[in-house]
Design brief:
By secondary structure, the chain is α+β, with helices and mostly antiparallel strands. The radius of gyration is 22 Å and the shape is elongated. Strands 1, 2, 3, 4, 5, 6, 7, 8 and 11 form a 9-stranded mixed β-sheet that branches. Strands 9-10 form a two-stranded antiparallel sheet. Strands 12-13 form a two-stranded antiparallel ribbon. It contains 6 helices and 15 strands. α1 packs antiparallel against α3 and α1 runs parallel beside α4. The protein folds into 2 domains: 204 residues, Histidine kinase-like ATPase, C-terminal domain (Heat Shock Protein 90, 2-Layer Sandwich); 80 residues, Ribosomal Protein S5, domain 2 (2-Layer Sandwich).
Length: 297
């Protein structure tokens, strides 16, 4: 299965896939803010200020491009010569899979001077793409209700999403990611056993967080070392980009007083927990340079 499971991990992966599409717009330089909201009825809404999913007629499928993106695998902007140069997620299958695994999905697009809307049920369009009122704005809003038939649970964990989006904000410097929870938490407190529960007013307030890091992964390292006692005040940071080969790299590091190392590597914003040639190359180069410095010194 494309999302890995039908449990809580797979459920949250639906949100990540929709957000990853918006992040791709940010990586391409067309999006500066992504807002994610868990609605009171359990749906999730993702809004970005990117260019908006294309709405013109697809030359081969003979239907609007947004409908192709939402119903056909490998139809996203991550495929073909005109796609994104950098992208994350399931590489073009993400949004169509989210649509297929949702009992309902609504998409609203601001593009080409108008607002465009379309609704789906179990992955099937319920009506043709509708052109609405004029607008000068651009962007995409996707609202989906995960299928209770497919998933073991449809309850989203705020902290799980918050941690993921904070990491995404670190990896995409300057990008703002907002997360809000409009559900009413079923939280009560009691002073003694057997006493009537008393609602905690603060606990019942909707939760929200917002992440934006102008320093990118340098701020990430500062965050990771905040309780480990940094050995030097500044974070070592450098980046490289080769436009001809379409390759870019960022490195941020700082030694601390702990005995265990913490190494986090990412490829196209995806956490490569098992390492890879990029991590091996970095370790080899760093070891070589430190040894050379020690010998020369």
């Amino acid at each position: 299965m494309y999302i890995g499971s039908t449990g809580e991990r797979g459920l949250h992966h639906l949100v990540y896939e929709v957000v990853d599409n918006s992040v791709d717009e940010a990586l391409a330089g067309h999006c500066s803010r992504i807002s994610v909201t868990i609605l009171a009825d359990g749906a999730v809404r993702v809004v970005d200020n990117g260019r908006g999913i294309p709405v013109d007629m697809h030359p081969i499928e003979k239907k609007p491009a947004v409908e192709v993106v939402l119903t056909v695998l490998h139809a996203g902007g991550k495929f073909g010569g005109g796609g994104y140069s950098v992208s994350g997620g399931l590489h073009g299958v993400g949004v169509s899979v989210v649509n297929a695994l949702s009992s309902r999905l609504d998409v609203e697009i601001c593009r080409d001077g108008y607002v465009w809307r379309q609704s789906y049920a179990d992955g099937v369009p319920q009506a043709p793409l509708e052109r609405g009122e004029p607008t000068d704005a651009t962007g995409t809003m996707v609202t989906f209700w995960a299928s209770a038939v497919t998933f073991e649970t449809t309850h989203y964990d705020f902290e799980t999403l918050s941690r993921r989006f904070q990491e995404m904000a670190f990896l995409n410097k300057g990008l703002t990611i907002d997360l809000a929870d409009e559900r009413t938490p079923a939280v009560t407190i009691s002073d003694e056993v057997g006493a009537d529960p008393v609602d905690d007013p603060e606990a019942l307030e909707p939760r929200s967080v917002s992440y934006c890091y102008d320093g990118g992964i340098a701020d990430f390292v500062t965050h990771l070392n905040s309780r480990k006692g940094p050995s030097h005040s500044s974070v070592i940071y450098f980046e490289f980009e080769d436009d001809e080969r379409g390759i870019s790299a960022e490195v941020a590091m700082q030694w601390n007083e702990s005995y265990a190392e913490s190494v986090y590597t990412f490829a196209n914003t995806i956490n490569t927990t098992e390492g890879g040639t990029h991590e091996e190359g970095f370790r080899s180069a760093l070891t070589t340079l430190v040894n050379k410095f020690a010998r020369d010194w």
